[in-house]
């Protein structure tokens, strides 16, 4: 890259200007955005699976309608994000193919199973809570289309988090068996949720450059700390216990001290060896294969229309 162009580009970023699709950008900036936005889009799409699993078994019609709306929102988030990635010169089909053959990642969290109805509560409270913590700052990210997509996504995510909290509240105030279910869901989702923010800062390969480019606004550990500080009082209010015996309020730092997740488990999950990786990718591959006739039909229709226009 031309050093002069790089300096001007960095100055634009530093002054808080947005970078738009037709502007000059370093190849590394474009690649990093495609990786991060693409991974984010895939996470929204794969993220429909663990909750989709409970739509037919929601306990009331109201809960079913809410869950259905939420899962549809995730599909919409995936679409805005694929749209944002496409402005960088990659097609949605290319991104999908990279997901399906394992060249691109999606969030580790969606490789864990949802075993009971209380998991819908824990997913809303913890997984959507972590997603908001990560995504609110991304509304100010330097790439225009990504930041604008984030604004709408964040509005919907906060509804998702609240619906999760409401499920947890009902369960926690319910029968002994229901409360036990809520506690069990919290126990299973706590550490995987902490892993959503990525490896600890010392192991985060992309953070320094991504923060200089304002593709990321905070380090992984900063956001993880904020998430713990926000979530512990919420769990306490519900009468539930965060499964971390080392958890202590630290007056000096104005935040909690907490136990790190098991990082070997995290790296294993992102390598493809989590409890549901195979199942999740098989479901996405099946959806892609089952949809081939729709794509073929659309292409044939477009070709016919083009031919008619030329004639
Ligand atoms: N799940 C899967 N992979 C992860 C995760 C995770 N939770 N965290 C980090 N990684 C991967 C990174 O993609 C990177 O691998 P790669 O080079 O093959 O892409 C590697 O671990 C090292 O991590 P970092 O250097 O810290 O990576 P990065 O700077 O991209 O930070 C983060 C990771 C924080 C997830 C960042 O990409 C981000 O903020 N993304 C946008 C938000 C997002 O994707 N959310 C998805 C889940 S929320 C939801 O959709 C409901």
Automatic annotation (TrEMBL):
PANTHER family in alphabetical order: 1,2-PHENYLACETYL-COA EPOXIDASE, SUBUNIT A, PHENYLACETIC ACID DEGRADATION PROTEIN PAA
NCBIfam families documented for this protein: PA_CoA_Oxy1
Primary gene name: paaA
Cited Pfam families: PaaA_PaaC (PF05138)
Organism from which the protein derives: Marivita lacus
InterPro entries: Aromatic_CoA_ox/epox, Ferritin-like, Ferritin-like_SF, PaaA, PaaA_PaaC
Residues that span the membrane, as ranges: none
Name used for this protein in its record: Phenylacetate-CoA oxygenase subunit PaaA
Superkingdom: Bacteria
Gene3D superfamilies: 1.20.1260.10
Family annotation (SUPFAM superfamilies): Ferritin-like
């Amino acid at each position: 890259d031309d050093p002069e162009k790089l300096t001007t580009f960095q100055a634009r970023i530093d002054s808080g200007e947005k970078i738009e699709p037709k502007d000059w950008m370093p190849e590394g900036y474009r690649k990093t955005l495609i990786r991060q936005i693409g991974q984010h889009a895939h996470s929204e799409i794969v993220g429909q699976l663990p909750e989709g699993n409970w739509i037919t078994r929601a306990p009331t019609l109201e809960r079913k309608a809410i869950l259905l709306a939420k899962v549809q929102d995730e599909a919409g988030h995936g679409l805005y994000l694929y749209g944002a990635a496409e402005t960088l010169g990659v097609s949605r089909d290319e991104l999908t193919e990279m997901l399906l053959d394992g060249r691109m990642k999606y969030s580790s969290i969606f490789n864990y199973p949802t075993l009971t109805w209380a998991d819908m509560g824990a997913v809303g409270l913890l997984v959507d809570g972590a997603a908001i913590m990560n995504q609110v700052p991304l509304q100010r990210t330097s790439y225009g289309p990504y930041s604008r997509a984030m604004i709408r996504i964040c509005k919907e995510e906060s509804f998702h988090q609240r619906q999760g909290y409401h499920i947890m509240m009902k369960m926690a105030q319910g029968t002994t068996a229901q409360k036990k279910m809520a506690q069990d869901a919290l126990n299973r989702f706590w550490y995987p949720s902490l892993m959503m923010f990525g490896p600890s800062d010392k192991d985060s390969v992309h953070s320094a450059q991504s923060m200089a480019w304002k593709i990321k606004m905070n380090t992984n550990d900063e956001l993880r700390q904020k998430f713990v500080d926000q979530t512990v009082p919420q769990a306490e209010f519900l009468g539930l216990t965060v499964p971390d015996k080392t958890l202590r309020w630290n007056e000096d730092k104005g935040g909690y001290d907490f136990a790190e997740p098991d990082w070997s488990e995290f790296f294993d999950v992102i390598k493809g060896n989590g409890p549901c990786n195979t199942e999740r990718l098989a479901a996405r591959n099946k959806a892609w294969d089952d949809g081939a006739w729709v794509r073929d039909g659309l292409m044939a229709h477009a070709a016919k229309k083009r031919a008619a226009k030329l004639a």
